[in-house]
Amino acid sequence: MTTNNKQDKTRDLDLFITDLNGNLRGKRLPASGLKKLHKEGIKLPRSVVGFDFWGADVLDNGLVFETGDSDGVCMPVSQEPSPVPWSEAPRDQMLAMMFNPDGTPFGADPRQVLKRMVDRFAEKGLTPVMATELEFYLMDAESENIQRPIPPALADGKGRRLANAEGYSVEEMDGFEAFFADIREACQGQGIGADTIIAEMGPGQFEVNLNHVADPLNAGDQAILFKRLVRGVSRRHGYSATFMAKPYVEESGNGFHTHFSLLDRDGHNVFDDGTEQGSDLLRHAIAGLMQLMPESMLVFAPHLNSYRRFMSGAHAPTHASWGYENRTVALRVPESPNLARRIEHRVAGADANPYLVLASVLAGALYGMENALEPDAPVEGDAYADESPQYPLPCEWQDAITRFEQSEKLREYLGEEFVRVYAHAKRQERRRLNERISDVEYEAYLGLL
Fold this sequence. Notes:
- By secondary structure, the protein is α+β, with helices and mostly antiparallel strands.
- The protein has 2 domains: 12-106, Glutamine synthetase, N-terminal domain (Ubiquitin-like (UB roll), Roll), CATH 3.10.20; 121-414, Glutamine synthetase/guanido kinase, catalytic domain (Creatine Kinase, Chain A, domain 2).
- Helix content is 32%, strand content 18%.
- The protein has 12 helices and 14 strands.
- The protein has helices spanning 34-40, 110-123, 142-146, 170-174, 177-189, 216-236, 280-300, 354-370, 397-405, 408-414, 416-434, 439-445, and strands spanning 12-18, 24-30, 42-45, 71-76, 82-83, 91-99, 127-140, 194-199, 205-210, 239-242, 256-263, 322-324, 331-333, 343-345.
- Strands 7, 8, 9, 10, 11, 12, 13 and 14 form an 8-stranded mixed β-sheet that branches.
- The longest helix is centred in the middle third of the chain and has 21 residues, at 216-236.
- The chain is globular, with a radius of gyration of 22 Å.
């Protein structure tokens, strides 16, 4: 698969924002209009950002009838487009960010929510450095047609279908060599810093680590584009791919881990004090992340399926905890050289909106630092076995919605407009799913009551 950045009048250009669910919304334009696009942007109703998961208006969020469904202005966030190499016809793409008609930031736009946090750190002379790790399942293409996950067959000419979890298996990756070669090529063409590729714990499950960047907005952009890229390249190879949090009941869920450190004006990592324990600011950030984690759970686990990752024995944190080099905690301080001292946030699922995950991580850290909070002692051993956690995480969707909507701290750090619009979108999503009778209900009750 080859890429071509050269612009010509025959190419189309996709300009899109992400709505609060992380779904892409925008328009397809002729690439010849790029100069005008940089000057004027494109108009979309602001209500688009607050759509429910299926793209329907959420009528009680204050953005539809109350405003006359007025437009916002979507402006590109980069100067040059990147290619869409999996497209059959020549096509490019650009990410955008929404503004109000008067030029002020639209507070419910996910990228603007993240920018708000980046700006608050900048006021303190601090630059967050962030990296993401995204897990996904590669599936048979028929999965999309029957709406059930089917493990893929290896591209080895034998048609052997994956059936077992083979964590860290190099041979499993060999079976998809051409697919991952195109993933790397597409990442390079789009400026996405893909690092290691790992076969994870489920059949056809993989993790790709993206490089650390001293620009959270860029980290969010790369995660958004990477998710689109994986879906596109997988279809080009006759597969399907999903970032659904828990596509298989008995298999590992898809996580979204975030690594985070902070640089001062001189480029020094403020989490490093020359010791293995790290600085006071590291502990303050951890304490803030722990305290805001229960209220932020709706960002980290946005959908009904998301909460299946947090069942007993599912290897996902069920309470806010931290520790050094401990993968059972919610916040891990990895073993590393002192100058690379950082926090790994291990709660979010791969179905979450990357901009909102990064913004929520920054909000928790800043809250702890501004208030000089101190965390409990770090957990040693199995954090899942802790029976008296100080900060239990809501593991039911309704509880998470309520905690999020009632959080004054999230309104302060992430913005009142965002909290209102996001909570309403999640309530409508939950209502729509509750209106449907599941197969298991019919199987259990239809002939017995």
